[in-house]
Backbone:
């Protein structure tokens, strides 16, 4: 992708199509159908938000398709929503495809109304049509199309149904006619602002509408295009209007438009009696979100994860790969081969020594961590595809409020179990700066990524389930404690929670397979190279006696405070590279019989709460700034040691 100016441009483009829609409506699936396999993912110019783009199939690289981030409204409160508005205003698309969840036409029409103010040629796609029908919802799409004067297409994108009709209707896109008679006071203030920008901007009503609610993107555009006097005038008009209201302008506009849409949709939606209802699915849904039984279900899920990831992945598969394949076959064979080759011992040790690329890095990466990561990715994919995570967000919303978060925050926290670095990037979907900082802090503090979780489960597999519970409880308690204190110390507005709960589904094997393969590809590309680089650094440190020097520095902390053998210092040194790599160092010490059960718990608690890995640290700088990244790290390191010390004292009195 070649970026010129502020937009996404690649060569000579005849047309631009932008996909817009609420989160989780199947927009990306439709994007993949439209573009095929040749897709580019890059940060949108001037932002840190990734945007997918590709060429329309059959267009000969002439029609660019852009998949914008999901939005609740063009009012744009999150970073993702701001980027969607930037794409619409800067790319000036020829066609906007509004992808809607057919079960929630009303929510889509709110977006359609906002798009209509900008005079974009639009197509409305009613996706997940099968799920709407299962709920007894019938939409007269022909009548709706006639009323809106735009094509309305039914699709079930995941199965490719309706995609052909979408292709056939691309050239029929037109400006939607969705005219509502808003309250007289709103119309008057919109007209007063519009008079100040007439002649400066084409089709200004959309900009005026978004400016009225304080949309940052439109403010920047208007400030750039208007004189200082004109811009000051419209700011004054907005301030005067705000003073006449008892609620924020955003709520006033939303409720006004919502009132019109409520009466508008009644003409096109018919609810029929559901002939067949899956009572078990309904029971399961209610069980998952119940204020008591929902938490029992969480415990049940965690136990299943322990069996699948902890026992199968970290126990059986690790024993098979690390103990048999690498321990008895691959590593002994490689050591013999290198001994037969006439090369300096230094080079031989680099590959097959104590800190060898083969005997340490690849053994860690493929034999110890990969089987656990793989089983975790499969389990994560099943939970994700089933629709459980939105229910978890709903269940935990009231609890998360106590630590300054909304239910929406559970999603990046769960994603952190896959990769803290990527989860930190997804905090941009949260609405307030305060919430973003708290979630970033909690991810860096104690949400173990899949690779680290893999090593921890491998460590605990040889101790007991109670040891795993102690570790889990300690980490969770400290996440809650730090979150609670941070919510009281940090200033900022409190978030509010709105989330569509999708229906429960039987997970699709195809979806889980492709998601797992994509995550495995990430692991092979991102994690394995870090293991190799980390091992090379340790090898150099060992040869140069730097490792001994660092061990002496860390020895008082490791032995006197944490009560661990001095060799454990290596684990914390490795932890500066990656926390999972540090945990792997403790796994080796356990294998050598240098750690007892209590020391394993102390070491795993401390390394879990240890400072963020280098990759995560760099992303925190990118997302939150250097000062915040430094403050987070300076807090986490001594805090991790303090909690490790407390756990040590408790276990000395009550050993496991």
Residues:
């Amino acid at each position: 992708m070649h970026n010129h100016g502020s937009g996404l441009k690649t060569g000579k483009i005849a047309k631009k199509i932008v996909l817009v829609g609420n989160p989780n409506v199947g927009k990306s699936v439709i994007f993949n159908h439209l573009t095929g396999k040749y897709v580019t993912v890059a940060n949108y110019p001037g932002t840190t938000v990734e945007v997918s783009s590709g060429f329309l199939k059959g267009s000969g690289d002439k029609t660019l398709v852009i998949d914008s981030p999901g939005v609740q409204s063009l009012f744009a409160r999150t970073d993702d929503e701001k980027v969607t508005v930037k794409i619409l205003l800067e790319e000036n698309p020829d066609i906007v495809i509004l992808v809607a969840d057919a079960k929630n036409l009303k929510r889509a029409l709110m977006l359609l109304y906002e798009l209509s103010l900008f005079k974009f040629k639009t197509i409305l796609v009613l996706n997940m049509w099968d799920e709407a029908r299962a709920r007894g919802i019938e939409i007269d799409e022909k009548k709706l199309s006639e009323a809106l004067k735009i094509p309305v297409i039914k699709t079930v994108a995941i199965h490719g149904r309706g995609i052909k009709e979408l292709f056939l209707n691309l050239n029929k896109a037109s400006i939607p006619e969705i005219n509502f008679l808003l309250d007289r006071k709103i119309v008057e203030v919109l007209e007063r602002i519009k008079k100040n920008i007439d002649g400066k901007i084409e089709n200004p009503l959309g900009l005026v509408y978004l400016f009225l609610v304080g949309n940052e993107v439109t403010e920047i555009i208007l400030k750039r295009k208007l004189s200082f006097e004109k811009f000051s005038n419209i700011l004054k008009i907005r301030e005067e209007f705000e003073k006449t209201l008892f609620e924020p302008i955003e709520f006033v506009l939303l409720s006004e438009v919502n009132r019109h849409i409520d009466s508008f949709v009644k003409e096109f939606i018919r609810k029929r009696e559901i002939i067949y209802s899956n009572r078990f699915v309904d029971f399961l849904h209610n069980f998952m979100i119940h204020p008591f039984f929902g938490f029992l279900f969480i415990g049940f899920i965690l136990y299943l994860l322990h069996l699948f990831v902890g026992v199968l992945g970290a126990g059986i598969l690790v024993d098979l790969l690390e103990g048999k394949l690498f321990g008895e076959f691959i590593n002994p064979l490689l050591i013999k081969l290198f001994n037969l080759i006439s090369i300096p011992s230094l080079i031989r040790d680099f590959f097959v020594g104590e800190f060898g690329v083969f005997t340490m890095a690849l053994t860690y990466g493929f034999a110890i961590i990969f089987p656990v990561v793989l089983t975790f990715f499969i389990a994560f994919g099943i939970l994700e595809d089933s629709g459980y995570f939105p229910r978890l967000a709903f269940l935990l919303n009231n609890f998360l409020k106590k630590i300054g978060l909304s239910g929406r925050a559970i999603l990046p926290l769960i994603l952190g179990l896959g990769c803290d670095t990527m989860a930190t990037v997804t905090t941009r979907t949260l609405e307030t700066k305060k919430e973003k900082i708290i979630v970033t802090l909690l991810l860096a503090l104690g949400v173990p990524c899949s690779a680290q979780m893999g090593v921890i489960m491998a460590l605990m597999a040889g101790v007991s389930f109670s040891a795993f519970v102690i570790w889990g409880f300690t980490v969770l308690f400290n996440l809650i404690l730090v979150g609670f204190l941070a919510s009281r110390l940090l200033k900022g507005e409190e978030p509010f929670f709105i989330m569509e709960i999708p229906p429960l589904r039987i997970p699709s094997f195809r979806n889980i397979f492709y998601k797992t393969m994509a995550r495995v590809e990430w692991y092979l590309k991102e994690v394995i190279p870090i293991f190799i680089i980390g091992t090379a650094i340790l090898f150099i440190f060992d040869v140069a006696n730097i490792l001994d020097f660092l061990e002496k520095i860390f020895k008082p902390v490791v032995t006197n405070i944490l009560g661990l053998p001095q060799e454990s210092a290596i684990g914390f040194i490795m932890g500066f590279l990656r926390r999972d790599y540090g945990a792997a160092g403790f796994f080796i010490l356990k294998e050598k019989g240098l750690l007892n059960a209590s020391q394993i718990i102390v070491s795993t608690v401390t390394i879990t709460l240890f400072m963020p890995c280098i990759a995560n640290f760099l992303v925190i700088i990118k997302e939150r700034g250097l000062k915040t990244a430094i403050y987070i790290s300076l807090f986490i390191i001594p805090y991790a040691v303090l909690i490790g010390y407390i756990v040590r004292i408790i276990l000395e009195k009550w050993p496991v």
Summary: DSSP finds 28 helices and eleven strands in the chain.
